[in-house]
């Protein structure tokens, strides 16, 4: 089976969909001739033409507004927002329009738009190229929210997102575009080839939205996480030698709370980890929902590990990033609770 | 601070108690503005965006190059739709005053803007209305009954009770869902038109918003995308002089037309007498032909006046002279078209009275039929469980659970109220 | 002491500040000559002039962008966003600029801007005049977030917000502008006169940001809530005869978690109530934080009562609104946990 | 789908391997465009927004009504600042290539845009730069040392390590903090100017953004608010033809100037040769006088060319001809001013060589001084605890707690790494 990194897997997902569905179009800043600043749309315009892979003005709000209109007229737009940090100018069109068009029109109109956007830090991008704003979309009724942690899921989830008749906000953890990252910036970078999830079918396949994945089985504790942090948590658990089960959320909305809660009830201990700012982050919803369902099984307070409640500072990237040291301390503390 | 201040604050011609003053409205004589070919370069529309396209003169005659030369049948159809719109508005406004619907927005004085445009376009063209374009729905044959049911949020409401009154839609009639958020439909209309162009369709899109809404980012995005991709779209700015209490000068209208924004960005601009049915029809046809032929978008400013309150939540006597509309230089669109038909010998007072009577009784019957499907206070009522549908295409697990929670809540409440004998929550 | 409703109290706060501080300016849609669609700025332009109380174009993003620039040039703008449902077009200027200017410039620049906006439902406003988006601001580092529940707090908190050198998002629960509301739409409306918090000093006073208020003492359970829901919860507890302590959060950021956690530790039971959509709402952060601090004292799972995870539907306003029946059921269930 | 498609896609004159083609750039002869009085009505600036204001002719002479008549001292000062900017850029670019800073953005080819404007304005005027306006900082006397420390995020960084390289600021020199979010500074500059007007100050604000950024909502809001309140602000669009890989046609530049957006909305518009130091200086002075005198804002389009890569993360050879700049019709701004001075007999090769040497050695010394305050890899290093400051004016409880958590985390790590002997995290 072909081996792909995440960039190639995402590119392949769009290639497959552009090929089999003439209504699929791709649009965004620098996505056409250039192939995107992260090369995710490389070659697609050459292959499918400048009328199906469109370079756009630098107006995120306009891109989403136009994409909504296109989708109402029978297309399936896949819009790229160059960095998640720059999605806010489109927030009104996403929240007030994209998320609610189906509802307000009783399904007479709907907008099958997929919005792809690279998120997360670890690339020395400073405060405006490092953000993880999933929480402000997960709170909005009517949006599906996805964040894959490996090439196989990335392609399968993006195909599901494009085929889905509901709008999907698709976050791409850019730090792991080229390889899994265990949180240690001083180690030499690892590529996806070595990783089992780097094996990606060339053709069409789906990874369903709304299903979490247990990426490591364990019985001593449950770590609930997603995106880049999946790899950091796996490494932390391994290094600590804690028999932790690691659940990759994959999809924040709809949330597969059953899988998550079942694991926590089994292990009795829960650590939640994400890169985004802690206060009011998606981890809060995870903690609240898990607590509501697993209260009587909990042997220790549910712990959260996250980015600090500050912007993402350029010089202190690795002090901000919730790396192995932070995860390990939290996991240790969690296990030490008698 | 103020004394020293050098900040310019737009002037408002007349406030309550003062004499209405419309000297700020730049007028052109009927027939005076040339009608260029539909492939005219944008640059050459700069003056069209400053002048005022008018067809009906003071004597009710159609004059000049913009006369669309419509048949008496079409003109009578236009009068009928405009009257229907006005009577519908008056009736629904009264209904809201009686507390039978929660909210209403009239288009009094602006009927030509919607009706003439709808009649100038093809049924397959997609329309993106604002909340003051009910004329588009009526002119496209939407039964008043359906609109009344939406206003009542009753069991026949096309929105299943989710939208505020007047936020209609009709997929079948290609009338887009109205949003409560100003201007958002503008870039959506451009996107719809881009899709039509990508597919090679000949359909065009048309969108409407108020002059106040041009301040929103969506207006800018719409013009820009329309210009860049030469989208087959007609972008209509309805300049009715007011945005709730805010005069159009605060939207940038001081000594500058809104139509001028078009050539500024690189799309054609037309400034049109919005109370002149023939001018609106002609301008819309011109823009539609231009778009269909691949020459791109047109920004049309329709100069009109919001003769009534902003909505049933508003009281304009707080911020403008009560008798403003009587002094409005462009008159009343219904009256002007009626007069034109009379001048042509195609209409008279009897026929007019008969039409009014016919429409009134039809609307009365529609209302009777509509309330049978439920009102805010009397059943039948939509099942509250509907609240959880259409958030997504399929009902997800967490909403299924919440639907059950609501059922339990209502059961408990029914029990409680049964005891206390209070049934005010209705069925 | 004068009696004021919330509209008058907020108006008085701006009047007092415009009077004593020449750098304070008020701007927004219809706020000047007209006095605002909810009359909150009534009379201020007449009194202070059209150069200090400005009518603006209908561009929320422009209003906030301009307010930031004004504040950098020595003014203290108080911007009104006509409805919280319409704050999204300003989201980028708020999140990317207002919240982070001080941080990115190491305090060489800062933006003392207050953004007032009416929020919440219960006025038959449908999906676009009823929203409570506090969660999407509380998650953003650098913003203070406030929501008063009565006239006295409203004035004191707004004065503190205007005097604060950090940006403040000030939510006004419009359903209680004219009187407290216990959640029953069929009862005749009550005015603020009768209410002790309707007594409002005419002059200058502060209610400090970052302090919750215990509005009802109790020992059986703690209800953590804010805005309109404070009154609904008080009524629910009274009607159920549950000796619940009711904590009015008042300020989501900075959050007075100490007061909240102390109460929960004392009572051992906690119910969180807000009007906003439940999933990823601010209640999630409250639940997570409380659980982290009070785990060992909890006798039952922390419960959340909130708006459903749907838009706010016009016809089903009272089925959406988390009124007394929903609060009572949750409180009952909470108390029944052995 | 494409064959049938009628969507217009902006054309790009030349891609890699093709012959550079700048025939699309509308030029005017030096001295050909009239200079109206500063109180000229907006309407009369429509043609100024289409033509190209130029002063320096082919022979390096200053001609026409826009010649600002600057003294040789001022001209030499301009040359010095432009050269300093270019040398600073080249050096920092190399430094990034050596991995000593994480990111850099050059202004190669656009030096006149910033330097001439800074010199035409008063020190008390407030500047809102984009990330490509380092010339504004240098021309206002910001020591290169301070900028280098920012680039290094070291202990002397004015941003305390929080910002990406090139996001400088200087409150004292009235240079606003640069944002990574495009265009956001535009409405802020207008707000700043509104405040100045409210207070009755005579200071003006000036802001810069790229032509690609004009697509953002903030550009629209800025023009609108500037028009409505007649704010004393200068809004500069730096049209360097490219937005990363995206040609200016995708921002609406096809057959339409960006300056034309000004008159479209109702503010003055000027299209200026951005590589002509004298033209930029004259246009900026004109706009500043106009603003100070209370006649409102001006939108200035500065036509220039991004001679280098977008940033150190970009490779332009992927999307445009390598030799594009050599064919750019407006030449090199540094070379053109140098030539002008030589023509005037106020400059020669020796003085030029001496100036270069002086600046180079000064920059070398600055860099030596800067790295002493720390680099990414060598200490001294900013205390990570600083991360929690300036989120709010006072450190709130929850951030105090998180600061402690970080301390514990680093202590644990130090312990661990001490054992494993790995100290890679640095001090
Ligand atoms: C984004 C947004 N901001 C504010 C409002 C509140 N609002 C509703 S209508 C209106 C005035 C609109 O005026 P205009 O665009 O001129 O349209 P008109 O009502 O005159 O037809 C305002 C400010 C809104 N609905 N949406
Ligand atoms: C809101 C936002 N969207 C996208 C980006 C990513 N981005 C950074 S620079 C750039 C191109 C800007 O081009 P232009 O405005 O012409 O300025 P130039 O780089 O040519 O000086 C883009 C798209 C951003 N920084 N902010
Ligand atoms: Mg209006
Ligand atoms: Mg550019």
Record keyword descriptors for this entry.
heterotetramer; A: 338 residues; alpha/beta; 7-stranded mixed beta sheet; 5-stranded mixed beta sheet; 12 strands; globular; B: 427 residues; 5-stranded parallel beta sheet; two-stranded antiparallel ribbon; disordered C terminus; binds thiamine diphosphate; binds magnesium ion
Explain this structure.
The complex is a heterotetramer, with 2 copies of chain A (338 residues) and 2 copies of chain B (427 residues). With 338 residues, chain A is of the alpha/beta class. Chain A has 12 helices and 12 strands. Chain A has a 7-stranded mixed beta sheet, with helices on both faces. Chain A has a 5-stranded mixed beta sheet with strand order 7-9-8-11-12, sandwiched between helices. In chain A, strand 1, helix 2 and strand 2 form a beta-alpha-beta unit. In chain A, helix 1 packs parallel to helix 7 and helix 3 runs parallel beside helix 4. The radius of gyration of chain A is 19 Å and the shape is globular. Chain A starts with 5 loop residues before the first helix and ends with a helix. The model of chain A has no long low-confidence stretch (mean pLDDT 98). Chain B has 427 residues and is of the alpha/beta class. Helices cover 38% and strands 7% of the residues of chain B. Chain B has 12 helices and 7 strands. In chain B, strand 4 and strand 5 form a beta hairpin. In chain B, helix 1 crosses helix 2, helix 1 crosses helix 11 and helix 5 runs parallel beside helix 6. Chain B is globular. The C terminus of chain B is likely disordered. The chains are: A alpha/beta (338), B alpha/beta (427). Chains in contact: A-B, A-C, A-D, B-C, B-D, C-D. Chains A and D meet through helix 11 and helix 12 of A and helix 12 of D. The complex binds thiamine diphosphate (2 copies) and magnesium ion (MG) (2 copies). One thiamine diphosphate sits at the interface of chains D and A.
């Amino acid at each position: 089976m072909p081996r792909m990194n995440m960039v190639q897997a995402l590119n392949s997902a769009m290639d497959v969909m552009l090929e089999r569905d003439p209504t699929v179009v791709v649009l965004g800043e620098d996505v056409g001739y250039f192939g995107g600043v992260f090369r995710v749309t490389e070659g697609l315009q050459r292959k499918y033409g400048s009328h199906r892979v469109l370079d756009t003005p630098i107006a995120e709000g306009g891109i989403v507004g136009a994409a909504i209109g296109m989708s109402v007229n029978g297309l399936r737009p896949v819009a790229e927002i160059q960095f998640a940090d720059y999605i806010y100018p489109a927030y009104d069109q996403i929240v007030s329009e994209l998320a609610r068009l189906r509802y307000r029109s009783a399904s007479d109109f709907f907008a099958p738009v997929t919005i792809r956007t690279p998120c997360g830090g670890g690339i020395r991008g400073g405060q405006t190229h490092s953000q993880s704003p999933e929480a402000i979309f997960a709170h909005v009724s009517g949006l599906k929210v996805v964040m894959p942690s490996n090439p196989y899921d990335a392609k399968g989830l993006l195909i599901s997102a494009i085929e889905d008749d509901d709008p999907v906000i698709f976050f791409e953890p850019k730090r792991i575009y080229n390889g899994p990252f265990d949180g240690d910036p001083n180690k030499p970078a690892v590529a996806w080839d070595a990783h089992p999830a780097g094996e990606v079918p060339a053709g069409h396949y789906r990874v369903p939205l709304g299903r979490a994945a247990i990426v490591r089985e364990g019985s001593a504790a449950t770590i609930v996480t997603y995106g880049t942090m999946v790899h950091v948590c796996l490494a932390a658990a391994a290094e600590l030698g804690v028999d932790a089960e690691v659940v990759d959320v994959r999809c924040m909305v709809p949330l597969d709370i059953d899988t998550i809660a079942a694991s926590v009830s089994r292990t009795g201990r829960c650590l939640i980890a994400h890169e985004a700012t802690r206060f009011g982050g998606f981890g809060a919803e995870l903690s609240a929902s898990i607590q509501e369902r697993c209260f009587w099984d909990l042997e220790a307070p549910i712990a959260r590990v996250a980015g600090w409640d500050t912007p993402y500072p350029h010089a202190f990237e690795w002090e901000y990033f919730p790396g192995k040291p932070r995860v390990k301390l939290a996991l240790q503390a969690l296990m030490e609770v008698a | 601070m103020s004394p020293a201040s050098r900040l310019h604050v737009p002037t408002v011609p007349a406030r309550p108690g003062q004499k209405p003053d419309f000297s700020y409205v730049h007028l052109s004589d009927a027939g005076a503005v040339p009608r260029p070919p539909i492939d005219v370069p944008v640059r050459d529309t700069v003056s069209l965006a400053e002048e005022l396209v008018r067809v009906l003169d003071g004597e009710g005659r159609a004059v000049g190059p913009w006369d669309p030369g419509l048949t008496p049948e079409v003109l009578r159809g236009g009068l009928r739709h405009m009257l229907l719109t006005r009577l519908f508005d008056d009736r629904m406004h009264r209904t809201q005053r009686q507390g039978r619907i929660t909210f209403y927005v009239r288009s009094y004085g602006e009927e030509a803007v919607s009706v003439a445009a709808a009649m100038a376009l093809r049924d397959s063209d997609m329309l993106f209305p604002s909340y003051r374009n009910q004329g588009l729905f009526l002119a496209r044959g939407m039964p008043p009954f359906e609109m009344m049911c939406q206003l009542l949020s009753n069991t026949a409401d096309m929105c299943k009770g989710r939208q505020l009154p007047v936020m209609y839609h009709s997929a079948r009639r290609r009338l887009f869902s109205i949003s409560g958020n100003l201007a958002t439909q503008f870039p959506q209309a451009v996107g719809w038109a881009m899709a039509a162009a990508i597919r090679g369709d000949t359909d065009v899109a048309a969108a409407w918003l108020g002059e106040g809404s041009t301040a929103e980012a969506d207006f800018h995005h719409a013009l820009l995308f329309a210009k860049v991709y030469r989208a087959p779209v007609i972008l209509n700015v309805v300049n009715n002089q007011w945005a709730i209490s805010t005069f159009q000068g605060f939207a940038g209208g001081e000594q500058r037309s809104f139509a001028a924004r078009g050539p500024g960005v690189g799309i054609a601009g037309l400034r049109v007498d919005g109370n002149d049915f023939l001018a609106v029809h002609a301008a819309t046809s011109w823009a539609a032909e231009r778009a269909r032929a691949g020459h791109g978008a047109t920004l049309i400013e329709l100069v009109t006046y919001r003769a009534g309150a902003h909505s049933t939540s508003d009281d304009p006597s707080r911020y403008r002279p009560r008798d403003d509309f009587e002094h409005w230089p462009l008159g009343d669109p219904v009256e002007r078209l009626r007069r034109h038909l009379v001048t042509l010998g195609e209409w008279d007072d009897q026929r007019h009275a008969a039409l009014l009577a016919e429409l009134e009784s039809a609307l009365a019957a529609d209302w009777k039929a509509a309330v049978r499907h439920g009102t805010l206070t009397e059943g039948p009522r939509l099942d509250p469980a509907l609240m959880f549908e259409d958030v997504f295409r399929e009902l997800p697990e967490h909403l299924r659970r919440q639907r059950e929670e609501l059922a339990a809540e209502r059961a408990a409440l029914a029990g409680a109220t049964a005891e206390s004998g209070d049934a005010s929550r209705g069925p």
